[in-house]
């Protein structure tokens, strides 16, 4: 057995796998359609950034101050304003979910304002979507404060509030949610390819009997696994490349890290997903079960328990504890950091080490569990 | 010299059940070694043991001088294995599959070119080298599987049921290839559930429930019953009834329908019964015939079939003689491809009609149009006078259907399956009385709460038949009904079919299996989308009788007819 | 005809329940999702770690810090920083979500009634959480300002915000009821999508086709079990939300079930559509997944539809989940009147009619 023979076999396996991905509808769906679908949904659709959020502005009595304030709400890009005279008029819209908040400028607004009443204006938010409700309250009071400052300034009175908060956002000053969602989404996409697709194609070989045929050839189990790992590793990296390019060029997400570090960290993460995919397929030699297992053990945790969308620190402790074994939990912040902050060793080193540990454990289990014969 | 394969006291146990039970046997090189037995006999397990894919629970095994478990690398270099399910990558082309195997086996350069050339001409696949393996017919898939296994000439070639789902023509080609390989000194192991294939082997290991029933040249086994096989000729139209009576005769241990005749095997030392004793008409005669391997196998098993069937007790349908199934100019086009063209025939009540044909010839398409699964592009299919398209529901209420793999709901219990079919066929009182009768007649009582998928093979078949006939159909469609089933179960099944036919039920059956075709009253042979021949098995045999082949089998007739069309067809193309 | 449909439905229910894979599909994913969505899918900000860089010598900064640190569940740990670099490094390494800086003159300015400012530096990599945190900080500072001596007639009028329908802005009040939409969608798709594929794999589908059952009856036989199982699982989640999470259930339960039925019908139409395209259960599941992911993301469940670009908002109009989410939130939290429910119901009726009609047409075509 010369190294050249080994190389030829590996190349043959990789070539076979590549041809198959292009010809199998399920593989194409997972490798191409789903990643792009998710990428564009997240690029365009999933956004925490208020953009012309519908609000109802109740002006109980017109006054100069009221109309100035109205104008500044109308000018804001965050709101799409509809007017009303009484709160009752907006009640139905609030219940129907047609507006997210109601801002009430009371009839004695001007008086209250000049009297420095503590509550010159009221904000009512729709609490049925708590996150949006919180953001609405923040943005409305932001608009109010800006208006107040300008207004006070124009009258030449004490400009700034006595005690205020000056907030700055590092790494993402525009607070664009897309900037942290898209880099994090790479973790989900790589999970699709590394875990779901790998589990699917290996289990398919078992199901269709091709694994049996391969095992009867001079190929070793090690070569067979390598023949799966290499193409799906390359595919995962290609997905990384495409996603990064689309994120940077189409969606204007900054990339402040170095490509080399990106490749290195992503490789370690991809290894964990591949290990998980192989593990699933050795345990479930059936495409249906493998797809399901991948969906629930990799995709869903990658989405929900990685900090991509939801806040890990806010979860109850048993779930928080569980997130420590979810590889995406380490990769999502690493990606967000590489894109938005750069190569920050304080984030990347510990996270990569954790991924390395998980990958090692997974591959050790795979090596132990992979049958050398049909009966183990 | 050490034999090519040495199996010494080998057992393989899964759970508590031994799949191979202390088996000792020797296979030599340069021979065609048959591994014969019904489904579940342990054939696949044995082949996997030989390929080093399973580890024996006990015993010693040597293949081409290697211990399959301890020396897998050496073994795999000289052993080629073709698993039951092709082992081909269906989304790769023929050529891509070959290249993959050549790369894996290290066949490169000139050697590869020559090998491919040889294999492609050997398998006649050169024309299809760019076709996806998944799009090949069953026979072509097997040939490709064989080619892939042969990219490097092995010492041992293990073939697991290469002839399943393969039409007689492709099957014969596969045999020719195997014989060629044997001629080159390769030791070939060919496993099969078709007992007639055993006779072509140099050496046969007959397996039953993991044990060897017989090991040696097939002639040795048939010799055991020499002089005990008889053909009953001149039965007129009564062969099925005579068979039922014959099976009750103490001398007769086995009997099947063979065309217009009956084949009987007598008990050891039993005197041949007279036609009268068998209840046969006086015109009948009992002639000795050379024994077949299957006769000997059934004799060895020593179990008698009774030929009894619960259907025999039912009242006649009174359809005998009427045309119950009619095809008029049936045509089916898929795009520009015509799968079936202008097919017409009429089947009478109480008749068994067999649809035969090579893979992809249009036999299944015709069958599906007949039972309403496909909509014809032209022509009419009528069942009991109802058009299957315009009066589908009524027509379907009159037919029963049983597919190859006993399409039952495997996760539903026997009772739930019966209840469901009773409900869907709208039986009176929810089918309670009928179900009770079926359960009793088929002995399903002990299994009533068992999942259909977990039933023993024979009971699965009984349940499938019960479900398909519960509503007392006038016409029964059978799609390869006994493929892979052991001979005893098959005999029982045909016993029921014979009883049904006796009542006037019409049976339409498709099969690749010539033994099954022999049960038919008439056979329609479909090739290239057309009905190329129609007639009783004996007439078809007579049509292809030649000087070189004075006593053709049905398989010979089948191949001869197809080839003559091929020749004429080519002649037409030339003009 | 009714007997046949009844048999088909009973068979279908048994088949789903007795198939170990089918049963697992009905039990395990809903439980996993129920746990994950109810407890993990939270955008609330809790247990954060923050850093303080205090150059102020006075008491105001300490008092404010204590209030910040004492806010219920909000801050888990306050790390004291000694210089700017240490603080930014901690932020960069994501050890803290926020750095609070008090300038050297902070307390002195307050004492002298000069404007003073609390500088906060937030991690933009988690800008959603950071904004919520900023809101909390602002309200704490605001409140503190109101308590400052001489603030009775404060310089800076503050605003009063009230949250309707969910006064404490509890995350679970949103996620758990909305789970009804996600889970019933999954169940409806899987039960119908997989069952046809399962019959194809088993070969029983042909058996069905040669029986007297008409295509329409087969379609009904496939639709009703999905509907029944979907309604059962939906009811379980509604109960879970109301009794375990104490989400108020103000509106008409009857309207909620009517809407759920229509919603399920629309979803099952999609399931039938998928099933007529696929050959295996595995493909059916992938197909269902490919539909569920965008349908949920565009439903307004996770992020508001109003935040999407206009063209994508148009796309959401064909998403049945979009309407059902509004109805769920309405019936649970808002005591939504029938008129408003109907406003969201009729588009679902249109979608259901469309998907079911298309699916039956495709289904019948495949049968022939």
From TrEMBL, chain B:
InterPro entries the record matches: AAA+_ATPase, ABC_transporter-like_ATP-bd, ABC_transporter-like_CS, P-loop_NTPase
Entry keyword annotation includes Protease: no
GO molecular function terms listed in the Swiss-Prot or TrEMBL record: ATP binding; ATP hydrolysis activity
Superkingdom of this protein's organism: Bacteria
Domain ABC transporter intervals: 5-234, 325-553
Pfam families per the UniProt record, alphabetical: ABC_tran
Record key words, sorted: ATP-binding, Nucleotide-binding
Descriptive protein name: Multidrug ABC transporter ATP-binding protein
TrEMBL record, chain C:
GO annotation, cellular component aspect: plasma membrane
Classification via Pfam families: ABC2_membrane_3 (PF12698)
Residue intervals passing through the bilayer: 172-197, 224-247, 253-274, 286-306, 345-363
Keyword Nucleotide-binding found: no
PROSITE patterns: ABC_TM2
Subcellular location: Cell membrane
Domain of life: Bacteria
A GO MF term: ABC-type transporter activity
Similarity comment: Belongs to the ABC-2 integral membrane protein family.
Name by which UniProt lists this protein: ABC transmembrane type-2 domain-containing protein
Record organism: Telmatospirillum siberiense
Source organism phylogeny: Bacteria, Pseudomonadati, Pseudomonadota, Alphaproteobacteria, Rhodospirillales
């Amino acid at each position: 057995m010369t190294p050249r023979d080994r190389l030829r076999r590996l190349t043959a396996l990789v070539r076979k796998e590549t041809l198959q991905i292009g010809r199998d509808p399920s593989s194409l769906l997972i490798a191409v359609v789903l990643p792009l679908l998710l990428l564009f949904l997240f690029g365009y659709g999933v956004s925490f950034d208020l953009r012309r959020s519908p609000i109802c502005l109740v002006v109980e009595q017109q006054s100069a101050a009221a109309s100035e304030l109205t104008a500044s709400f109308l000018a804001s890009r965050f709101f799409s304003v509809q007017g009303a005279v009484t709160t009752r008029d907006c009640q139905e819209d609030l219940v129907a979910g047609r507006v997210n908040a109601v801002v009430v400028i009371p009839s004695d607004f001007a008086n209250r304002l000049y009297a420095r009443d503590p509550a010159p204006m009221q904000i009512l938010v729709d609490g049925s979507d708590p996150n949006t409700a919180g953001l609405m309250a923040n943005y409305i009071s932001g608009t109010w404060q800006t208006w107040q400052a300008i207004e006070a300034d124009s009258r030449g009175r004490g400009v700034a509030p006595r005690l205020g908060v000056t907030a700055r956002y590092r790494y993402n000053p525009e607070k664009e949610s897309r900037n942290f969602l898209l880099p994090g989404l790479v973790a989900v996409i790589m999970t699709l390819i590394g875990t779901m697709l790998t589990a699917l194609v290996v289990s398919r070989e078992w199901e269709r009997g091709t694994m049996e045929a391969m095992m009867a050839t001079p190929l070793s189990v090690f070569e067979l696994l390598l023949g799966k790992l290499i193409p799906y590793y390359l595919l995962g990296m290609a997905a990384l490349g495409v996603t990064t390019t689309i994120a940077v060029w189409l969606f204007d997400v900054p990339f402040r890290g170095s490509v080399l570090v990106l490749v290195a960290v992503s490789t370690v993460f991809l290894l964990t997903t591949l290990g998980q995919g192989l593990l699933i397929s050795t345990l479930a030699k059936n495409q249906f079960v493998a797809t399901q297992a991948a969906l629930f053990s990799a995709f869903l945790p990658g989405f929900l328990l990685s900090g991509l969308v939801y806040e890990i620190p806010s979860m109850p402790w048993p779930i928080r504890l569980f997130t420590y074994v979810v590889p995406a939990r380490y990769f999502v912040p690493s990606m967000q950091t590489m894109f938005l902050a750069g190569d920050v060793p304080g984030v990347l080193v510990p996270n990569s080490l954790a991924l390395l540990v998980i990958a090692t454990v997974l591959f050790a289990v795979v090596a132990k569990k992979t049958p050398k014969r049909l009966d183990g | 010299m050490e034999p090519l394969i040495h199996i010494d006291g080998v057992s393989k146990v899964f759970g508590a059940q031994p799949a191979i039970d202390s088996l000792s046997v020797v296979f030599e090189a340069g021979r065609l070694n048959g591994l014969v037995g019904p489904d579940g006999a342990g054939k696949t397990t044995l082949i996997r043991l030989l390929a080093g894919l399973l580890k024996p629970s006990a015993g010693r095994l040597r293949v081409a001088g290697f211990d399959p478990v301890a020396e897998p690398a050496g073994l795999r270099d000289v052993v080629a294995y073709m698993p039951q399910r092709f082992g081909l990558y269906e989304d790769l082309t023929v050529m891509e599959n070959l290249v993959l195997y050549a790369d894996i086996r290290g066949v490169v350069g000139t050697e590869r070119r020559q090998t491919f050339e040889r294999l492609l001409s050997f398998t006649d696949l050169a024309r299809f080298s760019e076709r996806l393996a998944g799009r090949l017919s069953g026979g072509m898939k097997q040939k490709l599987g064989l080619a892939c296994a042969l990219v490097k000439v092995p010492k041992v070639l293990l073939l697991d049921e290469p002839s399943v789902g393969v039409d007689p023509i492709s099957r014969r080609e596969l045999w020719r290839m195997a014989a060629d390989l044997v001629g080159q000194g390769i030791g070939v192991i060919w496993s099969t559930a078709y007992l007639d294939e055993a006779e072509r082997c140099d050496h046969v290991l007959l397996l039953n429930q993991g044990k060897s029933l017989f090991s040696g040249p097939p002639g040795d086994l048939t010799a055991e019953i020499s002089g005990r096989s008889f053909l009953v000729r001149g039965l007129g139209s009564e062969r099925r009834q005579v068979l039922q009576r014959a099976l009750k005769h103490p001398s007769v241990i086995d009997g099947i329908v063979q065309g217009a005749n009956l084949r009987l095997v007598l008990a050891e030392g039993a005197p041949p019964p007279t036609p009268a004793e068998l209840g046969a008409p006086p015109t009948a005669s009992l002639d000795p015939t050379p024994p077949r391997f299957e006769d000997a196998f059934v004799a060895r098993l020593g179990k008698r079939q009774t030929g009894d069937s619960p259907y025999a007790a039912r009242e006649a349908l009174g359809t005998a003689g009427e045309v119950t199934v009619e095809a008029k100019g049936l045509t089916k086009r898929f795009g520009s491809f015509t799968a079936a063209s202008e097919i017409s025939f009429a089947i009478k009540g109480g008749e068994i009609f067999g649809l035969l044909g090579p893979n992809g010839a249009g036999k299944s398409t015709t069958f599906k149009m007949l039972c309403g699964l496909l909509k014809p592009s032209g022509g009419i299919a009528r069942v009991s006078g109802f058009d299957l398209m315009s009066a589908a529901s009524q027509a379907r209420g009159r037919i029963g259907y049983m597919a190859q793999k006993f399409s039952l709901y495997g996760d539903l219990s026997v009772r739930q399956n019966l209840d469901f079919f009773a409900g869907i066929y709208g039986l009176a009182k929810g089918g309670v009385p009928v179900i009770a009768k079926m359960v009793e007649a088929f002995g399903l009582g002990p299994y009533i709460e068992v999942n259909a998928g977990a039933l023993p093979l024979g009971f699965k078949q009984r349940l499938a038949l019960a479900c398909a006939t519960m509503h007392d159909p006038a016409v029964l469609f059978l799609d390869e009904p006994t493929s892979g089933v052991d001979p005893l179960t098959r005999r029982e099944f045909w016993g029921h079919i014979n009883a049904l036919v006796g009542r006037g039920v019409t049976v339409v059956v498709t099969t690749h299996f010539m033994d099954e075709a022999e049960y038919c009253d008439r056979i329609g042979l479909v090739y290239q989308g057309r009905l190329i021949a129609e007639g009783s098995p004996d007439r078809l045999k007579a049509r292809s009788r030649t000087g070189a082949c004075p006593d053709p089998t049905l398989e010979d007739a089948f191949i001869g007819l197809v080839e003559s069309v091929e020749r004429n067809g080519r002649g037409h193309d030339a003009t | 005809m009714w007997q046949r449909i009844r048999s088909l439905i009973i068979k279908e229910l048994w088949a789903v329940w007795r198939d170990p894979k089918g049963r697992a599909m009905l039990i395990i994913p809903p439980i996993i999702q129920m746990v994950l969505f109810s407890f993990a899918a939270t955008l609330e900000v809790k247990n954060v770690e923050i850093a303080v860089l205090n150059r102020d010598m006075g008491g105001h900064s300490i008092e404010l810090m204590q209030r910040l640190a004492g806010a219920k569940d909000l801050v888990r740990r306050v790390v004291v920083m000694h210089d700017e670099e240490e603080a930014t490094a901690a932020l960069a390494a994501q050890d803290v979500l926020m750095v609070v800086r008090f300038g050297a003159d902070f307390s002195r300015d307050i004492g002298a009634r000069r404007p003073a400012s609390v500088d906060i530096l937030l991690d933009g990599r988690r800008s959603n959480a950071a904004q919520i945190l900023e809101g909390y900080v602002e309200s704490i500072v605001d409140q503190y300002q109101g308590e400052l001596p001489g603030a009775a007639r404060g310089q800076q009028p503050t605003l009063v915000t009230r949250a309707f329908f969910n006064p404490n802005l509890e995350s679970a009040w949103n996620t758990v009821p909305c789970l009804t939409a996600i889970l019933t969608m999954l169940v409806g798709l899987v039960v119908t999508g997989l069952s046809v594929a399962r019959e194809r794999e088993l070969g029983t589908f042909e058996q069905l086709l040669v029986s007297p059952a008409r295509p329409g009856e087969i379609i009904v036989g496939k639709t009703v079990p999905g509907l029944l199982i979907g309604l059962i699982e939906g009811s379980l989640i509604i109960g879970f939300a109301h009794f375990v999470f104490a989400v108020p259930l103000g509106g008409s339960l009857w309207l909620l079930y009517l809407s759920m039925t229509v919603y399920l019908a629309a979803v099952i139409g999609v399931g039938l559509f998928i099933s007529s395209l696929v050959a295996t259960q595995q493909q059916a599941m992938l197909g269902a997944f490919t539909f569920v992911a965008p349908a949920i993301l565009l439903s307004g469940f996770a992020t508001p539809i109003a935040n999407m670009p206009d063209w994508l908002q148009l796309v959401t109009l064909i998403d049945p989940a979009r309407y059902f989410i509004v109805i769920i939130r309405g019936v649970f939290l808002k005591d939504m009147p029938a008129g408003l429910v109907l406003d969201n119901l009729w588009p679902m009726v249109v979608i259901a009619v469309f998907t079911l009609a298309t699916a039956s047409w495709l289904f019948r075509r495949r049968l022939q």
